[in-house]
Amino acid sequence: MIDFELIKKVFFRLKERGIKLITAESLTGGLIASEFTKIPGASEVLWGGYVVYTAEAKISLLNIEPELIDSFGVVSPQTVEAMAFGAVKHFFDASCVPEPAVSIAVSGVAGPSSLEGNQPGTVCVSSAFFYPASFEFKKLHDSKALKKEALVFKTHTYRFSGSRDEIREQTLNKAFLHVLSLTERTAAPIKELS
């Protein structure tokens, strides 16, 4: 069951802190972005999303290295972390001025068949948080080229059970919990509301 109260909590957290959200979805097929846009005013927070259901889509839309997928597979912490980075990087490259952003990336096996030796319910979730006003970013990074070291990541592999839809819904809930956790323990200040 989708936890809509959790989604609203994420929305208000990101809105009050001026953080944009970008999604990179495989097994959820756009469900995360779709549920988020049910909130009035979602456009103030959601920058956009990528549905990258195949390995080819991950490579071409998020610039995932084919060797990474060949080595670890599409359902791996390494791949979802690269997806999370790729989503933030596209946002960074499109922005005139670097803005705070967080991404959600998910890849897994909704079933009924296994994939790459992973059983149905195996899901990798990663979130990447970029806060350009941080001292560390200014000190260590060129403001025109985003490097992975400029982001904070939260990545985990889960084992869910249930139907395809139940697995996709559990994935959505965990993904939003990742965003809450990541934005709670980082140094992003609360944006002054005018």
UniProtKB/TrEMBL annotation:
Superkingdom: Bacteria
Domain CinA C-terminal: 6-128
Protein name: Competence/damage-inducible protein CinA
UniProt lineage: Bacteria, Pseudomonadati, Spirochaetota, Spirochaetia, Spirochaetales
